[in-house]
Amino acid sequence: MRLRPSLLPAAAAVVAAVCAAATPALAGYNVWTGEYTLSRQELQAALEQRFPATLRYAEVVTVQLSHPRLVLDEASNRLTTHVDARLTNALLPSPPVDGKLALNSGVRYDPGQRAVLLDNPTVQQVEVNGMAQYREQLNAIGAVVAQQLLKDYPVYTFKPEELRFGGKEVEPGTITVGKDEVRVEVKNR
Hints:
By secondary structure, the chain is α+β, with helices and mostly antiparallel strands. The protein has a single domain, classed as Uncharacterised protein PF07273 family, DUF1439 (Bactericidal permeability-increasing protein, domain 1). It has helices at 8-22, 40-48, 135-150, and strands spanning 28-30, 35-39, 53-57, 61-73, 78-89, 97-110, 115-128, 154-157, 164-165, 168-177, 181-188. The longest helix has 16 residues, at 135-150. This is DUF1439 domain-containing protein. Keywords: Signal. Residues 1-27 form the signal peptide.
C-alpha cells in the first residue's frame, strides 16, 4: 500500500503522536490544577546521580553508599531514600560490614537555584547485621551521612521558561508528596 504524497504530513503527525505517547512524560505543568508534577521515576533518576558515594569519618571509618531506592511518603509529606552501606574500619583488621540506611528528607523550593531541594534529612533507620551493640554509634554516623549526602541536594531544577506563562513570571509554592509523584504548586509573582 502506498500513501499519496499529500497524506505524508498527516501520517507523520500520527506517528509522532503515537511515539510521544509511548515515551514517559517529564515534569509537566497541569493547567487545570496549576501544578508541576515530578514523577517518582524522575526523582529516582536525579537521586541516582548522587551515588555511589564514599564518606570518611575521623580517618577511621569509611562508609560506601550505593543503590539508592526512593520511597514517597505521602502521609508525612517526605521522601525516604534507602541505600546499601558498607562500613570499613581502618584501625581494625576485620572484613567490611554491610548494612542498609533509610534517610528521610523533606522537600523545599529554593528560588536562587530555581530548584526543588531535599530538606532537613535525618536518619530513619540503620540496619547492620551483628552490630546491635553499636546502634548508637551507627545512628550517629547515619545522621552525619544524611546531612553530608542529601542536605540541599537538588532533585529537580526548573528551566527559566518553565516559570513563565503567558508572559508572566510564576514561582513554585506548596510542595506536596503524593503516592507516585511530587506536586509543586505554581503561583503568580
